[in-house]
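Example record for the data management plan.
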Amino acid sequence: MSDKKIPWAKPDIGKDELFEIIDSFKTDWLTMGPKTKKLEDSMAKFLNVPYAIAVSNGTIALDLALKALGVKYGDEVIVPAMTYFATVSAVCYQGAIPVFVDIEDQTFNIDPTKIEEAIGPKTKAIIFIDYGGNPADYDKISEIGRKYNIAVLQDGAQSLGAIYKGNPVGAQSPISTMSFHMAKVMTTVEGGMIFTHDQATRDRLLTMRNQGEPGGQKYTHTLLGTNARLTDLHAAIGVAQFEKLPKYLQARKQIAKKYDQIFSAKADKIKLVSTPFENSSNAYFFYPILIEKRDQVAEALREKYNIDTRVAYPMPVYNQPVFVSQKLQFRKMNCPVAERFTTQVLNLPIFFGMTDEEINRVAWAVLVELN
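Corresponding structural encoding:
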């Protein structure tokens, strides 16, 4: 293997981020402060939502959002059968029971037509994701939520930069969350955010984030909160990253377009994700393909071509050992699409700065291994 390794993801962090961090040192404000507030304001404006609450990571964002919705022990929460584990673990943190529902064959998101049959007397909320930045059918999901008076929570960990029917994805729901982990489209290294349209919910979340202390009342605790604060050092990185977000998103779309052009001629062997809604677009946090012999192809790309890939995700969440061993309660519907998807999905390299030569090398290697 003489070719330079092509990573699955590659963060773009340099002098701009360092400048913002140095500025935090110069102002002597390293914990949560003005940089955090600036990032919150920027994200709220970008997503056209009134309130944004920065937190230490995307998982704690989900945990606090569910608490704000009043999800408690014994409640049931409908979740996609195929998602990152944190979507579901956050439900379990509340002592609630995840109910797994199948995904759509086109978008790879939760199938709205399967949700109603999963609703029971204990159903408290529905969580949906936008897989890899591909928008879910929010209108149908929210309609079900209204019909049954069930809260809808958007886990937008992968959603930043997507468009759904003309609007930015990530804050459609009354409450939603986002992740800025190192591999995401933009990063704070570790960090997350909660968005809401309701001031009372925002005030509650601010208190929960800060050890249960309401603003300006040091050592007075009105709620059982936690330390979920985002430091200004992390926010400083996010402030610099946000300025570059448009070019990050444009680059990902161009890479995906080139992959699409190459793979479209092999529709008999490679299934691609689709975005079926008008005035909508994928942010391409992931570039997933569905193929036979997925594991063999992934191994070949790694060993023969020095190309890194990811399998997101290798099994429906209910097949994770912690559920199979019955350490955690759950309920599941029939999920044939998720079962098939998790045996076929392969996420190819996509990152800002990826060259045409690298794109062609990845695509060529995939096609060679499938022939």
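Summary line stored alongside the record: The chain has two domains: 15-243, 246-370.
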